[in-house]
């Protein structure tokens, strides 16, 4: 393998344009030194997703990005003799760890005789987990040379510690105090005193870190009240699902029908999405495998578990908690699926 033949994983990022310019320059410089023709392979890992439609917006967006990257590279090459290739990879695989992504990239590099992987400094294919340092280490461990493009585009970083308010302080204090008493299982004077001290320490240390947005007391109170209704509802759903799974386990034929399904949940922001994903996992028969923004991949054990999932009962309940009663009156995932198929 020659290091004038480069592998460049791509995804949307603020520094992608500069990375493309850098790899073209590097490929041409290395080709002059090695006396071999340069080649650049831009690849977009797109793990398999189960979709309701034959066409996928994720695939279209990935191909559009690769076309844009190829145009940038041809512009930067300015007529120089350099081979530019683009490819979607891992379209029939499920990737979740740095090692998974590294295996795909190294396999592609070996198949196409590529000697160097150049990474965009802001490359983050998962979108919610910083992957690049571990990914570079795994690729290097597999025997492929690794380089990171210069970080030419800087965006102002958000301060970790922000200006806090007394409302945020007391909200965090109250939450910490209630959690301490819940764990203690007692409201004896000793527990009240130690809980007050512990909650005070937590509030002082974290009130400008944990709570970084303004708190609307009426909205928060409403959500807490609705959440108290949601907890027994969720427990009832868990109990029902437990009876169903127990029946399946005890049945001589073990009538299971496992399948991975996916849908776009009608909830937004981290807390509602996390609440729904965890609620699905807590309900026996369904397991949240992957979450990308509000797009969820769920493992279902039985057909009835899938029917319950697509009926949208849990989704509506979570919307009720965070957005109110009116927001719970929406089409179910199954109904939204039918609408998409008819469009």
From TrEMBL:
Instruction: Kindly give the membrane topology term recorded for this protein.
Output: Multi-pass membrane protein
Q: Which residues are listed as membrane-spanning? A: 169-190, 196-215
Localization in the cell = Cell membrane
Indicate yes or no for the key word Iron: no
Q: Which domain of life is it from?
A: Archaea
Q: Which taxonomic lineage is given here? A: Archaea, Methanobacteriati, Methanobacteriota, Stenosarchaea group, Halobacteria
Task: Please identify the protein, giving its name as recorded.
Answer: Monovalent cation/H+ antiporter subunit E
Q: Name the UniProt key words of this record, in alphabetical order.
A: Cell membrane, Membrane, Transmembrane, Transmembrane helix
């Amino acid at each position: 393998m020659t290091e004038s033949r480069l592998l460049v994983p791509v995804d949307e990022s603020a520094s992608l344009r500069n990375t493309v310019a850098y790899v073209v320059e590097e490929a041409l410089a290395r080709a002059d030194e090695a006396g071999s023709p340069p080649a650049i392979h831009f690849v977009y890992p797109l793990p398999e997703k189960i979709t309701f439609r034959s066409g996928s917006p994720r695939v279209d967006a990935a191909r559009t990005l690769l076309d844009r990257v190829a145009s940038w590279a041809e512009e930067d090459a300015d007529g120089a003799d350099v081979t530019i290739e683009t490819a979607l990879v891992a379209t029939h695989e499920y990737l979740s760890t740095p090692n998974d992504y590294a295996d795909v990239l190294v396999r592609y590099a070996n198949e196409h005789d590529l000697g160097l992987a150049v990474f965009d400094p802001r490359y983050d294919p998962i979108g919610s987990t910083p992957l690049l340092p571990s990914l570079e280490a795994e690729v290097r461990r597999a025997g492929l040379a690794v380089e990171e493009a210069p970080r030419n585009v800087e965006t102002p970083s958000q301060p970790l510690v922000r200006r806090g308010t007394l409302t945020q302080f007391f909200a965090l204090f109250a939450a910490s105090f209630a959690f301490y008493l819940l764990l203690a299982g007692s409201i004896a004077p000793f527990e009240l005193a130690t809980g007050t001290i512990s909650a005070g320490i937590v509030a002082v240390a974290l009130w400008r870190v944990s709570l970084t947005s303004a708190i609307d007391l009426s909205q928060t109170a409403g959500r807490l009240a609705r959440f108290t209704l949601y907890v027994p509802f969720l427990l009832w759903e868990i109990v029902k699902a437990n009876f169903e799974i127990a029946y399946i386990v005890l049945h001589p034929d073990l009538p299971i029908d496992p399948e991975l399904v996916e849908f776009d949940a009608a909830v937004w922001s981290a807390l509602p999405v996390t609440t729904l994903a965890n609620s699905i996992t807590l309900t026996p028969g369904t397991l949240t495998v992957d979450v990308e923004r509000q797009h969820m991949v769920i493992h279902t054990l039985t057909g009835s578990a899938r029917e319950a999932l697509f009926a949208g009962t849990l989704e509506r309940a979570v919307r009720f908690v965070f957005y109110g009663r009116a927001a719970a009156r929406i089409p179910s995932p199954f109904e939204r699926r039918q609408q998409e198929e008819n469009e």
